[in-house]
Amino acid sequence: MGASKSLQTTSEHDFEDLAERTGFSLEQIKNLHKRFQWLNNHQETLRREDFEKVSHLSFNPIRGQIIQAFFDKRNFGKGEVGEVDEIGFEQFLTVMSHFKAPNKKITEEETEAIRTHKLRFLFNMHDTDNDGTITLDEYRHLVEKLLSTCETLEEDTAKAIADAAMLEVAKITVVHMEPHEVYEGITFEQFQQILKGIEIERKMNIRFLQMDTTPMRCGK
Fold first, then answer.
1. pTM for the whole structure
2. What is the pLDDT of residues 125-157, one digit of tens each?
3. Nearest Cα residue to 217 out of 27, 9, 60
4. Residue 13 forms beta bridges with which residues?
5. Would you give the DSSP letter of residue 71?
6. Mind spelling out the 3-state secondary structure of 126-159?
7. Taking a C-beta distance cutoff of 8 angstroms, is the pair 22, 97 a contact?
8. How far from 43 is each of 39, 92, 107, 126, 202, CA to CA, in Å?
């Protein structure tokens, strides 16, 4: 499998079309296209191994989830599921649009739409089996990954912390449960409630205008 559509030319018309669909400015798109070409040595598509050039990403404990997000069809905005082996510039730009800072002069309705868009992206990143929930195993795996950078914690301690964190989330998200019911995980609606007090629409962004062709930083 490969990218369904790649950018064949770099004309101003192509960039204008992408700007209209993604909300990026022409300057941001040109910067990101330079980054795209730098990552894949001026090829038409980008593969997972190309992200090895992003030096700072190697220190991120969830680097695998970050890279996978670029190849997850759910993040391409076309209602598809599954994954691809390589992406074109359009897909790269679409995934990067999840990190675009919103315009300061937008309506409350537009702000909420951007927030939902970004939360869905984060949810997809951790719903690794695409079953509509972040399960105990997925959540435990995430917490253990994040704790893996702490050399003083033993493996059993990390697992205990992950289990305790999941139980705390369960208390917050499930108000009424029958004794026989089993907590299966966090749904997207519950995920939204958990992050209700965080301005994710403004905090989850990258300063595109300051980007050049030096290694970009992701995820921290």
1. 0.73
2. 889 888 888 887 787 777 777 776 666 667 677
3. 60
4. none
5. T
6. HCCCCCCEECHHHHHHHHHHHHCCCCCCCHHHHH
7. yes
8. 9, 13, 39, 30, 33
